[in-house]
Specification:
Structural class: mainly beta
Strand order of the largest sheet: 4-1-3-2-5
Number of strands: 5
Distance between the termini: 18 Å
Number of helices: 1
Strand content: 35-45%
Largest sheet: 5 strands, mixed
Order of helices and strands: EEEEHE
Helix content: under 10%
Shape: globular
């Protein structure tokens, strides 16, 4: 499961929690998105599905760093 983020280093493991249903998943940062994109992260389709995103284009989430090994 993967996620893109504007500033976290590639390889960082993060817990992504859906604020509406408290479903969470651990995903690895694999790339960047522009800081000007207007959101904090892009989730892979599998990660989004795992936390119940459904057909929505956006979701209120909580991001927590689990491991930041380089």
């Amino acid at each position: 499961l993967s996620i893109a983020h504007p500033s976290l280093p590639v390889g960082t493991q993060v817990r992504v929690t859906n604020r509406q249903n408290d479903q969470a998943v651990i995903a690895a940062v694999v790339g960047r998105i522009p800081a000007s994109a207007g959101h904090i992260a892009d989730l892979s389709r599998e990660a989004a599905s795992s936390i119940g995103m459904g057909d929505s284009d956006s979701l209120h989430i909580i991001l927590e760093i689990v491991d930041n090994r380089q």
